Amino acid sequence: DVSRVAGIAHQAAVAKVTFVALVDRPGIAQTIFAALTIRQVHADLIVQNIGHQGRTDLSFTVPESDMEAASEAADEVRENVDAQSVTVKGGLAKVSVVGAGLSSSLEYASIMVGTLGELGINIDMISTSGIRITCVIDGDRVHEAVRALHRAFRLGGEDSWSATA
Amino acid sequence: DVSRVAGIAHQAAVAKVTFVALVDRPGIAQTIFAALTIRQVHADLIVQNIGHQGRTDLSFTVPESDMEAASEAADEVRENVDAQSVTVKGGLAKVSVVGAGLSSSLEYASIMVGTLGELGINIDMISTSGIRITCVIDGDRVHEAVRALHRAFRLGGEDSWSATA
Ligand SMILES: C[C@@H](O)[C@H](N)C(=O)O
Ligand SMILES: C[C@@H](O)[C@H](N)C(=O)O
Questions:
Q1: Judging by DSSP bridges, how do beta strands A132-138 and A125-129 pair with one another?
Q2: A107–chain B Cβ distance below 8 A for any pair
Q3: What is the mean pLDDT of residues B70-98?
Q4: Index of the ligand 1 atom closest to the CA of residue B113
Q5: 3-state DSSP call for residue A41?
Q6: Is the pLDDT confidence value at B105 over 90?
């Protein structure tokens, strides 16, 4: 039942900045975001997953046009949070399935990642909420992904918008 | 300017299942979600961040009442996705700041993680979208966190709801 899906959103020219292996203790994320806020870095998506041996990675996406500034800001904070390194990757895109109650079943996420998997598109990051499932993928594949997701969720061409995915 | 924040949502009794170090190639997420869908596992939050040396972790949260079933389902799929292990952690909670246009500035995320950092509450996972910033934290600290976030975002007691954070 794909009726819960309202549309497909996408955003091209996305970059990702990652603090690799930072210390996983209270106050570390605070140090990072306070420093990035002062430098007026605008992050779209922020993702942190499980840590291992007391360290974890924290990533955020920015428009590719902000990649330089974001990377510089992250480098300045790196030592304060004892991150092993800061990595930056451009040429990415975000693609999102948008609707209501998408987390009521894994069916929606399954159709989305299944569609990308069939096309051989690797998923670089995943972030979901009740109304949105977002995958970060290679920027070269975004239009192909959007078209295929339209078909998979039986949407017309007009149910698509480019902006904040 | 905290006027964009509509309220604080939280969900107690949350568990997290993680596929540790699975192969980072197309179709892997598809295999996972197809298998979990068949077994009717309901995941709230799905997070995957950057990979290292061709492997990455993929986590999802479930209500603690589904922890057993979710962990068994994940174990059955583990070999198909060549994950080093599957870990399960209960006793967690989700707390979310909810509003519109929250990704317009890192200020909101910064106040949220700053509030948790001041209390010495460790952030286990982070996931954001334009209308929601969610942190997974230790379940014992959820009520303290919700109260402090109300103060930090200058909300009245009635701007809070417990449900899908
Ligand atoms: C890594 C970072 O999120 C840390 N766990 C914190 O609470 O600040
Ligand atoms: C790890 C998993 O997301 C993989 N990258 C995939 O595309 O399926």
A1: antiparallel
A2: yes
A3: 96
A4: 8
A5: coil
A6: no
